[in-house]
Amino acid sequence: MIHGKTLQQWYRDYPLLEKLVALEECSWFNPAVTSFDDALPHVGLGADNVAEASARLQRFAAYFRAAFPETRDAGGILESPLQAIPAMQQALCQRYGIEPVGTLLVKLDSHLPISGSIKARGGIHEVLKHAEDLAVGAGLLRLDDDYAKLDSDAFRAFFGQYAIAVGSTGNLGLSIGLIGARLGFRTTVHMSADAREWKKRRLREHGVTVVEYPTDYSAAVAEGRRQAAADPYCHFVDDENSPELFLGYAVAAERLKRQLEQAGIVVDAEHPLFVYLPCGVGGGPGGVAFGLKLIFRDHVHCIFAEPTHSPCMLLGVLTGRHDEVAVQDFGIDNVTAADGLAVGRPSGFVGRAMERMLDGYYTVSDDELYRLLALLQQQEGIALEPSALAGMPGMARVLTENQGYRERMGLTPQRLARAHHLVWATGGSMVPAEEMAGYLRRGRQA
Ligand SMILES: *Cc1c(COP(=O)(O)O)cnc(C)c1O
């Protein structure tokens, strides 16, 4: 019995489950998606919260300019490029046997400064919020101060009284660890077994304590949470339930809006925007999707992508059981090469908050991620880590699968011809060269 039902009963109630359990690639377009106005009250957060996070990142720009010289050219704002990838679009259309319609874009969060992944948005924001609260609370900082002063021995000594801890498959730990240690916090990262050696090494080089677990992500998080709870001076970054992470991710949307405007790209009823987001626990893609919905409302269509071995969000939303179910309950092993996506149990907060706002979910095999990795490198000269490719098959899924979905959403051929498809590329610029060479080899052979 699995949560009160036999596997056969589960299959009868949710026929798609059979494909998920068989580790077959599949897509599911959400029949419960509603208009933005109907969905918003269920989120529990609003535009004000995102604006606060945005203003905070603006206040910290002076700190970044002082502490991280690589952010100076961008004025201390951590942001990534947006670009069209026409050669990749052609290659994907050939690969999946579809006609090219619309325009394919990529958002290169792989190239975000400091930690080279989407976690440089949410993870860093949460640490900044905590640091600001402490410093303001102690009377050492005012919101209208020049935050460059935080990059000083005096502030590092102050933050050194406090600790920060996080459980991670790698990239979140990298972001929290690098910013936490630089601010002066005593920082501990609880790493799951699948975390890459180079990420652990890099953290240790920066004075972060790395604790390794032979288990998966959920277990590392649980143990980290338990240890942190015993220390009243320790703040635990809770990837499974954190509004501050979520809001840090959501700020991406107003930045993307400016980039789209600069590129002359219109988003409205006649020009829909599809966004494909790799999903682990759900905070990153959920936060970005929420920010995008606040701005583009019903004209943006957000779709989550997961590995076939870790379809935790799809499982949670499909069954309505959210964080009560883990993929392992159904015999799915949660073993994937996609760092950041090897998550067996989704965030209950994100799954419930966002289920009315998301158009769909799909899975991709690890072999396909590697093939796409090599293809993108060949076509566009862009090298990403495997998880960051999960958004690439999304365009073909939308254009070819489930006619009912396109009709329901008013996605006529005319509108699809004017659509933009945006693949959110979530990590990869900091992968060491020899590791990347291995990824490319595997992609060419797969
Ligand atoms: C963490 C991560 C994701 C997904 O973010 P979640 O908040 O875990 O859903 C996607 N891609 C990469 C590279 C990541 O590190």
Structural description of this entry:
The protein is α/β, with parallel strands linked by helices and 446 residues long. It folds into two domains: 291 residues, Rossmann fold (3-Layer(aba) Sandwich), CATH 3.40.50; 126 residues, 3-Layer(aba) Sandwich (Rossmann fold), CATH 3.40.50.1100. The protein has 21 helices and eleven strands. Helix 4 crosses helix 12 and helix 7 runs parallel beside helix 9. The longest helix is centred in the N-terminal third of the chain and has 19 residues. The mean pLDDT is 96. The site of pyridoxal-5'-phosphate has 21 residues, from helix 9 and helix 14. Pyridoxal-5'-phosphate binds next to helix 9 and helix 14.
Main traits of this protein?
Ser/Thr_deHydtase_PyrdxlP-BS; 446 residues; seven-stranded mixed β-sheet; binds pyridoxal-5'-phosphate; D_Ser_am_lyase; single chain; pyridoxal phosphate binding; Rossmann fold; alpha/beta
List the SSEs and their pairings.
Layout: H1 7-13, H2 16-21, E1 27-29, H3 36-39, H4 47-59, H5 61-67, E2 82-84, H6 86-96, E3 103-108, H7 119-137, H8 153-159, E4 163-168, H9 171-183, E5 186-191, H10 197-205, E6 209-212, H11 217-229, E7 234-237, H12 243-250, H13 252-262, E8 273-278, H14 283-296, E9 300-307, H15 312-319, H16 348-354, E10 360-364, H17 366-380, H18 394-400, H19 403-408, H20 413-417, E11 420-425, H21 433-445
Parallel strand pairs: 3-11, 4-5, 4-7, 5-6, 8-9, 8-11, 9-10
Antiparallel strand pairs: 1-10, 2-3
Bound molecules: pyridoxal-5'-phosphate (PLP).
InterPro entries: D_Ser_am_lyase (IPR011780), Ser/Thr_Dehydratase (IPR050147), Ser/Thr_deHydtase_PyrdxlP-BS (IPR000634), TrpB-like_PALP (IPR001926), TrpB-like_PALP_sf (IPR036052)
Cofactor: pyridoxal 5'-phosphate
Keywords: Lyase, Pyridoxal phosphate
